[in-house]
Design brief:
439 residues, eight-stranded parallel beta barrel, two-stranded antiparallel ribbon, 14 helices, globular
Amino acid sequence: MSENNRKAHLNVFLRATGHHAGAWRHADSKPELELDIEYLAQLAQLAERGKLDSVFLADGYAGGGSKLEPFTLLSALASVTKHIGLIATVGTVYNEPFHVARQFASLDHISGGRAGWNIVTGAGSAAHNFGLDEHPEHAQRYETGEEFVEVVKQLWDSWEDDALIYDKKNGRLTEQGKVHEINFNGHTYSVKGPLNIPRPPQGYPVLVQAGSSEAGKELAAKTAEVIFTAQQTFEAGREFYTDVKSRLAKYGRTADELVILPGLAPIVADTEAEARDIEAELHAYVDTKRALRNLSERFTVDLSDYDLDDPVPLDKAKPSEEFNGIRSRQEAVLDPARRDESFTIRQLLYRNNGGHGHITFTGSVLQTADFIEKWIRNYAADGFNILPQLVPTGLEAFIDKVIPELQNRGLFRTEYEGATLRESLGLKRPANVRHLQRQ
């Protein structure tokens, strides 16, 4: 697509109170409604009013907090929306391919073709909830995860698109020979099939990946259709965009078959001064000692031993190869300090407070639109995964003020392009592998 015709794709990372660590204490937030389906439905409908591509739910299997299970919630949201995509995070380490294939096929049928799967390998803290002593190593997780996704895709393809014929006269529900066993036997998984639900309306729900490590970038180039990433500077964004897009050709793919969406955590107001006031108030609600402890997980030294205005002690940071968590997030958090020697612990802390590893931006409506336009026009992103720092008011400001400005600039749709998430993202519906093999 030419520079003048490029349009942004925008997903919203749905969180009931917002993504700033202090948001839940703000007078405008509603933490008591984080399990309230009517409130969550209003947020999804607000995003759909803004013509956003999709809503996205993070998920995990450990820790405190309270949030609804994503398939349950997204199925409910499907019934009160018509166009917006519904993306759930589901890990490969602590699940089985058959379950995941069936759940996403069900969501895609329920929503009329609006499901997406954010593929992750799972967080290490969940191991003890599944009878394991420790989280599998990074390389093993990616190798197993790639096989997991392949099994799921084969299960979706175990039904050809025209397998259901409903022939009442002859008593045939399905066409003989168009529902297949997959008989998959790999290093980790052995699955006979077929799936016990017909092929999803989109063929496959949109495949999303969040990893940006070396292994993650290669897997994204091979299999992902959308990648959620976490570059915090324009320069890092352009480098990542060019790197990943350049890997597609060896897998027979073109640049428009992968949509790259960095996370963007905005605070938006009519003026920059008003936005800065909101930012300062949110930072004031954060327990700094606790936030420093959380940030210190990226280091081998306790950051509370330093003054907040000291430079970030990069020499103490764990090498990424020794980090068995989300390596790409560790790299994203540290990248601004690596690019600017004067970057302080306070700046790092505030960025982490506001976007937990994603780009934070505070400014006016016009400044926010300028920021988005710069990244889109200069091929640093295909759009953004929006993480409003304060909800609902921050999401409302983005939908009601930033979206119209982007539309005025020709940078965002004014109507949905079709009925499915694939159509919104400009992605092709995958052909059924079993059908192609029979031709």
